[in-house]
Structures
1.
Amino acid sequence: MESFNPALPSIVESLDDVYKNFENNKKRYDELNETFSKIYGDKPIFYFRAPGRVNLIGEHVDYSGYCVLPFALEQDTIVAVSFNKSNNDIININNCNEKYTSKSIDVSGGGNIEIDMKNHHWTNYVLAAWKGVQQAMNEGNGNRLKSVNLLYSGNVPMGAGVSSSSALVCVSTLAISYCNNLILNKEELAQLSIKSERFVGVESGGMDQSISFLGEQNTAKLIEFHPNLKTYDVQLPKGVSFVICNSLVDSLKVITGATNYNLRVVECRLAAVLLAFYTGLSWEKVRRLRDVQHQGNFDLNQLIHLTEQYLSEKQTYTREEVASILDISVEQLVKTYFPSGITVQSEHFELYKRARHVFTETQRVYKFSEICKQQFNQQPSNNSNNYDITPELGKLMNESHESCSKLFECSCPELDTLTKICCDNGALGSRLTGAGWGGCVISLVPNSKVDSFLDAIDTHYYSKFVNPEKLKNLEKSSYSFFTTPCKGACIISSSI
């Protein structure tokens, strides 16, 4: 059933309505309130939160225009806010975690604020949101944003592929827009956050921001981006848990974007334009692999066949070779198909592998969703031989990881090792989740085996492959835990 909801983010009066782990999260808000008072000598007027996410299946397909299947986590980024009454030109940005140093930023330039891309500081994400909201205001009444005091607290694991950076952009976008009476619905907030995150050099496809705002408790979301943003509830099977295990290899999407994430965006664009060219379409209008499907009225099987036919013989291309095929200059190629302001460092581009991954991964997303839907629609029966869908779902997850590793090449040795250990110790399926090149894996594990599964991962992965010094100051629950779908971004009353 289609469940796209254009409603505004809710205002929550009780933390019970957001968190299953009430006690731990109540402590976070208490600390936030106390620290805010110490730093600013003021009380927050509002709290805002935006969750991280885990993607069940559908990796690196959103920026090619295809659907994904994530859900929102309980782990989130919170910000407490008050107006800066002492200086209208300064926003103050602090964090409860002293590891993340504070900054006071002069914003008298409005939307022209400069973000120092050479100095990767966590506040860049806040400034990206500020810049995005200011530009949105300029399109309306043109008023300058009000100066604010901000204090953040986050428990979304950093560099783990569960969207800590997008949660920071999303919560900042929500807070800044709300404090300036810019009324946006969830879809508009997601779109604005997508645009804003590009100011820090990431050509995001939109999954992370969309699920952060549109997530709901107890359901995953099939998200389609074209022709319009739509979400569909996907009820997950009972009797199994989705377990997150962090490889503890940092996945730093912004820092490594030029050679990893942004490079894959460009490779998918070049694959799309060559497929369009070879199939006689209006390739000049093509920017995404889905554009080829739409313009040519192809199904996914046909696109896989066309990828084999036209891209498999010569899998790797240079800029010069692609430009020569299209009969355009290299300068024109880069200007048209390389995202503006995004750095890409590579002389060679793998087109066949990237396109094949995107098309086959999209098939797996729809198949995963359809299998879940079929089970949900089954009539209750006393027949003990009811069909168990979980092995099929596990198989799709394993195939997804294999494709991410071999075709999209966004895995790493540690992720490959961890997924194998997971499958060898009770998981029905296991795959990397998020951008990859480090970060987390998600595993489908029978409820009866979760405890023994987590013990086995400790023994066979964390004890053998992770430096003990890295584990010493970490709680086990921060890098290895099972999870269920949780509520999307919202406003928390200051009276909690």
2.
Amino acid sequence: MLRRPKSIARQAAVLMAQNLESAEDASAWMVVFACKSVFQILHTSAAPLIASLIDCHLTSDTANLSYTLLRRVLTALIHHCNSSEQFSVVASLVVDRFCTLSQAEDVNHQQL
């Protein structure tokens, strides 16, 4: 379900996954399974999904829930990948977003 939608629909699906307050594990596994592919590699939709998660976290009013979701997803994907090369797309995305936000003047550093 999370792999097929385009950017606006994907954002809405990620927001829905983020707001499942009593089902945090189910939310995380929903995103993880959408990002996984066969042979211990990531699906091509992994980068846009993670980008949507990061964007939702940075604009979220409930940063604790989104942080937990993001942490669980990234941890599961790191353990799923066969090599560091397989995870490099997601790692680069996380580092790029962090660098961009840390250089902004009006950033809430607690969300980083």
